[in-house]
Amino acid sequence: MTPPLILGGTLGFVLGLGLWAIMAALTSRRVTLMERITPYLASHEAPESRLGPSETTSPFAVFARLIAPWTNTLVRLVTTVSSPNAQTEKRLAKARRNITLHQYRLHQVAAGTAGLTLGILVSLYLAIYRNAHIVALIILVIAAAIAGVAACEQHLTHTIRRRSERIILEFPTIAELLALAVAAGEPPATALDRVSRTSNGELSHELAIVMNEVRSGEPLTDALTRFGDRVDLPLITRFAEGVTVAIERGTPLAAVLRAQAQEARDAGHRTLMEVGGQREILMMVPVVFIILPISIVFAVFPSFTALSFLP
């Protein structure tokens, strides 16, 4: 691919991108019914000062408003190729990400844009110095953009997995503390409040959310049900269901909590044994493929050397 052809392709790409941006700006900005009636429904606010506007408009805010139509289009595009909105909101709550769905989509757009930029740079290098085919370069650019969006999804999945592991590790201790508090005569709500205030961790944070919902007027059973759905772990779901049944039917709650804590410890021991078995198999790889061949070489090489000097 010659340099004039590359220059022409780049200029054509930039021209097409500019035309697309103009068309998107003209077609995406339509006055809605809400925007038409909002000035007539707005409340009467205090007049602005005669000395000047009360707010300072920064260049970044102006730039954000200029690229808002493009950003909305990219967000819609990322939404079509990514996970659904309902599932993404549930995953954000499970990962304890204090951002909205729109903010997460903007993060995906930024990751996709970074991947697109990197793909374009690599494609230009391959086109100039390696004479790569144009179809392969286009596929590379598209794959780089998709990889950026997928990397954002993978980071969210990794965050969920790490947080779930921490919750499972914290559960036996939290269950034992609740069992001790209930056995001492405290009601379940008071025991949950005490444990959430005196302990730290991901599970304690979730229990604090439960108690905040209870203080706002929600029944404890409904808050525990939402807690199980929000965390979405089989162990925590059984814990929420067990506490709910014990509250509704009046069964001994301390025994239920101790049984669940012991079950969680047994599950943790089984998981450690499984991980230990996998690590043992992985440890055989350097022994068989590195240490054993070197030992054989050191054992056989002197014999071959001695035989080579024989007449």
From TrEMBL:
Topologically, how does it sit relative to the membrane?
A: Multi-pass membrane protein
Keyword set, alphabetical order: Cell membrane, Membrane, Transmembrane, Transmembrane helix
**Xref: InterPro entries:** T2SS_GspF_dom (IPR018076), T2SS_GspF_sf (IPR042094)
- The main location class comes to membrane
What sections of the protein cross the membrane?
Answer: 6-26, 106-128, 134-152, 281-301
Tree of life domain? Bacteria
Tell me yes or no: is Secreted among this UniProt entry's keywords: no
Annotated Pfam families? T2SSF
For the keyword Membrane, the answer is yes
- Any GO CC annotation of this UniProt entry: plasma membrane
- Outline the extent of the Type II secretion system protein GspF domain: 175-300
**Location of this chain's protein in the cell:** Cell membrane
PANTHER family reported in the protein's UniProt record: CONSERVED TRANSMEMBRANE PROTEIN-RELATED, INTEGRAL MEMBRANE PROTEIN-RELATED
Q: What is this protein called?
A: Type II secretion system protein
